[in-house]
Amino acid sequence: MTDGPAGPLPPLLLVGCGQMGGAMLAGWLADGLAPSVILDRHRDDIPAPHKVARQASDLPDDFAPALIVLATKPQKAAEILPAIARFARHAPVLSVMAGKTVGGLTASLESVGTEAAVVIRAMPNTPSAIGQGMTVCYAPPAATEAQRALCTRLLSAVGDVAWVAEEAQMDAVTAVSGSGPAYVFLLAELMEQAGIAQGLPAGLARRIARRTVSGAGALLAQSESDAADLRRRVTSPGGTTQAALDILMAPTAWPATMEAAIAAAARRARELAS
Ligand SMILES: NC(=O)C1=CN([C@@H]2O[C@H](COP(=O)(O)OP(=O)(O)OC[C@H]3O[C@@H](n4cnc5c(N)ncnc54)[C@H](OP(=O)(O)O)[C@@H]3O)[C@@H](O)[C@H]2O)C=CC1
Ligand SMILES: O=C(O)[C@@H]1CCC=N1
């Protein structure tokens, strides 16, 4: 999906190409990414003309990325920032690291000799790998419109993009859409297990659970209706769905559990800042 300005995606320095960096890279490669450099010690399947650096000391001196995408674990930030400092003097940094704040990252870059680096945050999710991602971004006032547009161009190549004006909202975003695919995959796992518990063969339980989750997601994506409306259309009064929802929607069941789970994820994002 390409909603941003036309033209090839710019050259990137992608730092960390694991679950999230790899998901985004898959989408960018499909959208004609300009020759880029990927810093990751595991990837050996990156097609030319892109290059892989196994370690920071292998990064080419003459490479001039338009953007540096930081996609290592937040706990690796202190280790990785000195390695990218020289690039951050000339190009903005787009961090997808959960919790790590613009102020903290900017201060860390300053402490390793990069004054006035521009850091923008994004929280993507793994459906980016198939162009179905949801990314929410935050840019500080120091970021220019051109830098914001560059991020929108890049991220809209892998899905939908929204911006928030308050950085604190990034923790809630992380809890809902960054971590959210895991909640949906858990739902598929639990439906499969419950089907088996009801006597279904394992293969059939897996097939119907997966197809139900993916089909319901596709219907939701194509529908103008609220999720609650779509739910009601499945729910016959006094029928089977009602019997299940009486359990799932009890105040102490999914409503309370989901709220507590998302609060816990947001709390953890705040803790990861330091
Ligand atoms: N996974 C997800 O769904 C999402 C993740 N995020 C954020 O994305 C970031 C990355 O997460 P994720 O993709 O899951 O993490 P991964 O561990 O899968 O990916 C990070 C990759 O970077 C490599 N790496 C780290 N440091 C170096 C280094 N110095 N030199 C070379 N390679 C290095 C890692 O190798 P090694 O393992 O050997 O260190 C790993 O391959 C996190 O900050 C997370 O908060 C955001 C949204 C969703
Ligand atoms: O679990 C995590 O910390 C990362 C951030 C959002 C999804 N995965």
From TrEMBL:
Intracellular or extracellular location(s): Cytoplasm
Positions bound to NADP(+): 71-74
GO cellular component, as recorded: cytoplasm
One of the protein's GO biological processes: L-proline biosynthetic process
Annotated Pyrroline-5-carboxylate reductase catalytic N-terminal domain residues: 14-99
UniProt keyword annotation of Membrane present: no
Enzyme Commission number(s) of this protein: 1.5.1.2
Subcellular location, principal: cytoplasm
Alphabetically ordered keywords of this record: Amino-acid biosynthesis, Cytoplasm, NADP, Oxidoreductase, Proline biosynthesis
Pathway connected to this protein: Amino-acid biosynthesis; L-proline biosynthesis; L-proline from L-glutamate 5-semialdehyde: step 1/1
Residue stretches making up the Pyrroline-5-carboxylate reductase dimerisation domain: 167-272
Family of the protein in this entry: Belongs to the pyrroline-5-carboxylate reductase family.
NCBIfam families (UniProt xref): proC
Functional description taken from the UniProt entry: Catalyzes the reduction of 1-pyrroline-5-carboxylate (PCA) to L-proline.
The protein, known as: Pyrroline-5-carboxylate reductase
Organismal lineage: Bacteria, Pseudomonadati, Pseudomonadota, Alphaproteobacteria, Acetobacterales
Annotated gene: proC
